Amino acid sequence: MAKKITGPQLILANRLDDGRAVFLTAAGAWSKQVAEAAVANSEEELTGLLSVAQAAEVSNQVVSVTPVAADVSGDAVAPAHIKFAMQSKGPSVRSDLGYQVSPNWE
Amino acid sequence: MYAYDTFDHAMVNARVAEFRDQVERRMTGELTEEEFRPLRLMNGLYLQLHAYMLRVAIPYGTLSADQMRKLAHIARKYDKGYGHFTTRQNIQYNWPKLSETPDILQELADVEMHAVQTSGNCIRNVTTDQFAGATADEVADPRPYAELIRQWSSFHPEFSFLPRKFKIAITGAKTDRAAIKWHDIGLVVKENDEGEIGFEVLAGGGMGRTPVIAKTVRDFLPVQDLLSYLEAMLRVYNEQGRRDNKYKARIKILVEAMGVEEYARQVEAEWEKIRHIPIDVPEEEVARIKAFFAPPPLAVLADDVPAVDELAGKNFIFKAWLANNTGAHKVPGYANVTISLKPHGGIPGDASDEQMDLVADLADTYSQSEIRVSHEQNLILPHVAKKDLPELWQKLDEAGLGTPNAGLLTDIIACPGLDYCSLANTRSIPIAQTITERFDDMKRLMDIGPLKIKISGCINSCGHHHAGHIGILGVDRKGTENYQILLGGSGGEDASKAAILGPGFDEDGIVDAVEKVVAVYLGEREEGEEFLAAYRRLGPDTFKEAVYGAH
Amino acid sequence: MALINLTGIQPTEFEVLADDASPSEGATVAVPLARLLEAEEAFFKSAGSVGAIIDTETSYDALAAVADKIAFAVIDFPAFGDGRGFSLAVRLRKDYAFKGEIRAVGPVIPDQALFLLRAGFDTVDAADERKAAFEAALERFPAFYQTDFGGQVSVAHTRHSAEGQRKAS
What we know:
Strand content of chain B: 15-25%
CATH class of the largest domain in chain B: Alpha Beta
Shape of chain C: globular
Helix content of chain B: 25-40%
Strand order of the largest sheet of chain B: 1-2-5-4-13
CATH topology of the largest domain in chain B: Sulfite Reductase Hemoprotein, domain 1
Largest sheet of chain B: 5 strands, antiparallel
Number of strands of chain C: 7
Structural class of chain C: alpha/beta
CATH superfamily of the largest domain in chain B: Sulfite Reductase Hemoprotein, domain 1
Largest interface: B-C, 43 and 43 residues
CATH class of the largest domain in chain C: Alpha Beta
CATH architecture of the largest domain in chain C: Alpha-Beta Barrel
Radius of gyration of chain C: 17 Å
Oligomer: heterotrimer
Largest sheet of chain C: 7 strands, mixed
Radius of gyration of chain B: 23 Å
Helix content of chain C: 25-40%
Strand order of the largest sheet of chain C: 1-7-6-5-4-3-2
Order of helices and strands of chain C: EEEHHEHEHEHEHHH
Number of helices of chain B: 18
């Protein structure tokens, strides 16, 4: 069933093993870089992305699959809400930790 | 300190093996996330914004130097080189891997520690006075009773799936430093007219979206009846606590709904039915546990130490530290030292692995290898000889652990907030950082005197804003962070609920509002009157006018 | 479904009585507790053995009314996290000295096996593929901190018994 959306969306989840925040890409993979996130611009597109994401949940790759509003006004896509933006960067009070250090931060 | 026997060791090792099995079954999908979630929570493992978070129990806030070294080692090996001490006297790690958590639990078990029931809808870690067994103002050391409760509540067959989490706090001192009236059950150690030790029993306190101060259920409960009485209290709650709405599932809602008299009546009736069952432990067991908490053998020393006075006379920072961060000990010539984890501009409650190692070494040298964690997110070295204070202070100061602000305005409780927590609406830590930078002047702080600021990043109230002299609550206002200011709360023996002063502010506005509130206090206070007393005398209107302007 | 036997009891073979049906002569039937509260003596007499199906909303007055009339109890967990099921079993064993079989049905999980045993349950209905996990979970802990309704004495009591002192040394 199509989900009602009011703007572009992206899919956020946490990896099962290390809990790291990851974003669903257009290729159906999970990336730590929000810039690589697939953006759903319609309810049909969102439904498509969610079915890929939920399959990854069923196969125990990720947990906590969440569709969130995307901000596409800048150079790269980003979560619109501060909470999810935090997940794309890392704690604001520790600039030495998280993806804000480098996209492949472990 | 309590030391494990073969039974206790077998129990924590069995728990590690159980969790290892559960993690494996989760990774293969044999356990669903829905099934696994309560199991991992009962081992302290949350999923937060960036990663898993592991909350390790520090039962009743007491740990040894070797245990602290293990906490440092875990921070280094499995995490990012730091840990966060919490308002429940526990420590949290922010970056562990699920697959490595069983190894962390095994390392903890090796030093008689665990993460059992630090989360989940079960009986949580029992908290107490950080100065227990060392303070001059207590009836008896509450920790033997906390240990009794720890054992009774661990893996309890009937109370591991309660309607909601369940927190017990106990104090043995007249000054309540454990916020017992804000707990599901609060216990106050007291002595009756016959000189017997027992407890005043309170129930139904809690924060969250419905703050309630606990009420007395029983004036005096003899020690030998403690566990059967708790069992009766929990059974009535497990049976009748609401399960249809998680925000109404705490015992405070049940006690409010049925009235404390009716709750007490049902508890007493249930207790009469179970007193014949061997729930309470034999007297020898109480004696066995008590023996572990025997006061350390301290030789009485001179209470006046000229070298201390001399340094205090020429160094204002040391003088401030002496006044704020050291407290009276039972034995003359000794002090309890609070190590502030609230450096101005820093993250409240965080400590690096190096700082933890240093504190462990200092405990070996100065405090009988013993360390405490306070619910105010500081560390304590108990039993320090006064003559050692200058040397100890210098070592702490060099490591950034000498901030002389214990009990003052910058000794802020703050939850992790939106920087880490998946439940938060706003960040908390940056507000604490800005306030402590704005008030980074020890002379000014000393003039303001005792003032507790407590910051929560959402209504769940982990930052105790309801109990703050000044409370700050973060709310999400249309996607932006907004902060409400509350005044007049207390977590002490004079517990009170803070009241919202007016509309919220952005992150700069809230700091200005705190400054205005402090300015009113400084202008209006009477000789020797502390902030909370002045607020209670003046009422909110004077403060409201200063913060929001005349209406 | 597999039946997990926690206590080694001889499990009751029963049929769940249909809503409007009467028990046939001498049959072993499980009946929702609400219906038993309305039932006449004759109902209990005609059946060979009657058990109550008890949901977790059950009041203790209701439990008291049937506790001495039933031969077995089936406690129905709507979710594995509904801990009232454990207190219901405890209350049957403790307040009514109930000696019959207590069975857990519903989505309880293997990791609850010892909690169930210690609250007084004898048997659990579980999915076939979970039988091994249930049985493994029963072996997990060597001792317990509580005296329970599965016959275990608390560690605190064992510590001060002759046997316990031998174990601890």
